[in-house]
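Record 1 of the preview.
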Amino acid sequence: PGALVADVGCGNGRYLECAPHVAFVALDRSLPLLHLAADRPSVPGCLAAACALDVPLRSSTFDAAISIAVLHHIASPERRRRAVAELLRVVKVGGRVLVYAWAIDQAAGSRFHFSDADTLVPWTLGAAGSNDSKDSDGGGGI
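->
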């Protein structure tokens, strides 16, 4: 209880409501997705526009950092390492970092088919404010 968590690439804020006892600082580079996150009824914490490669948060401040469905939108292994380094930088010693990326193996009905483990997933914002990716979770195209 009372943990401070950075959500880097929060997208539409889907994960901000998962732990009501946690204070989030949530970042995404997409203003339309941040507006969707702000419209959620019980989003605790703060939302801001920022890039995962240059996180404008103080070092060693957060109890944890999460980055869900972001890395596969970042264009190169070097830039992905930089994004992970930013997550590690903002977390206190002994803190935790959670990173999830899409799996190369997709269900038979998936519209995504990956031929290589290192595949950039294109990200575009649709007219209705959701992206091509399932639930607007990406912060990507970086």
